[in-house]
Input
Amino acid sequence: MLSRLSILVALGLCLGACAPQGASDAETPQATATPLPVPTEAPASPTSAAPPRGPRGDLSQHAGSMQSNATYCTVDGVELKMNFYSPKDVSGPTPLVVYVHGGGWSKGSKDGGAGMQDTPVLLDAGFSVATLDYRLAPQYKFPAMIDDVKCAIRSLRAHAAEYNIDADRIGVWGGSAGGHLVSLLGVTDEQAGFDVGEYLNQSSRVQAVVDLFGPADLTTGFSKGFTDVRDQVFGTFDLALASPVTYISPDDPPFLILQGDADRLVPVSQSQELYDQLTAAGVDATLVIVHNGPHGLGAPDQSPSREELTRMILQFFEENLK
Output
């Protein structure tokens, strides 16, 4: 598995229950009363990276084949779309990694987000990649979002031969709200009640999860940015039942959690709680706290750099899906 010790030595990171570099426990970013914007994956600021590039033009040189706007499921007449990319020079079924975008559960699309820059590296390494759209608030309230991404996993399994993928080697990654959704994918089975709709003869379980700064415990009201959108996204849904930490069990897949210590929308405490509960249950989990990392993990002075985080994501998927 991805070595916690090697990350600690090579990059000087805190793993597990330790404070960010150069900060006491009291200085660890927490929820604040200062008005915050609606949560997005990469809020515009002088310390944020340039907006992620759209995939179609950039990925053509990395993908062996591409399918844009393919329908993976249909819910009440709404066709849910994905982009699918196959790697070059493959002979047999490939492992699949699925990207779930963020945007406060109310915006964003399969064509962008904090994780899209990882896609070329994953394709070059021989992974197939799918990027998903899902129904958004306020038109659709939770659990529409997790219902949709679970349907996507079942659909991809059902069409494994068509897409030349190995149905037993599926990983997911996502940022912010997408991190929340992929964490839920990792810790829930059909008993959670989110498996509805098509392809119910297939499992929505996945074999590896990369959570980029996703909320884990929605009962805490962890930031004003979250409380501002909470009602329009979740309505009267029980927030405990929308929280990944509620469902953790020893049979959950490995997790890699990437979290910035300067994140004002999803504080370190959210990723720390997820890591602590996963490891307490015996699940293989790694927490990487990024020094000077804002929401979106795109600061030029953060450590590890965004490029180094991409290499960690690749290593994690290679160790768990190949």
In short: The first strand starts at residue 63 and ends at 75. DSSP finds nine helices and eight strands in the chain. The two ends are 12 Å apart (CA to CA).
